[in-house]
Design goal:
The chain is built from 3 helices and no strands. It is mainly alpha-helical. The protein has one domain: Helix Hairpins (Orthogonal Bundle). Helix 1 packs antiparallel against helix 2 and helix 2 runs antiparallel to helix 3. The longest helix is centred in the last third of the chain and has 31 residues.
């Protein structure tokens, strides 16, 4: 799942698709936290609490990224990464 996210992030030029790929990578890491916690320490909950914290941080990061993408769209009328050079002074 992480490799699919990396591939999507590298090959996409649309900022929304890149954000989705980034979220896919973050979710793959969260799943790994839970699985390794369950496998190595079956009676403890640290991996699950850390995953909940990571999900909250990812939600805040996504909200901020979408706000930035909306502002970029207002200026350039495009969410393509290659079009960001037009915003330079």
């Amino acid at each position: 799942m992480f490799c699919c996210g990396v591939y999507g992030f590298i090959t996409r030029k649309n900022m929304i698709a890149m954000l989705i790929s980034l979220e896919l990578m973050l979710n793959a890491v969260d799943v790994n936290f839970v699985v390794f916690n369950r496998f190595l320490f079956p009676g403890q909950m640290e991996g699950m609490f850390f995953t909940l914290f990571a999900i909250a941080i990812a939600a805040a990061e996504t909200a901020l990224a979408i706000a930035i993408i909306i502002n970029i769209f207002r200026v350039t009328k495009n969410v393509d990464v290659r079009g960001l050079n037009e915003m330079k002074f």
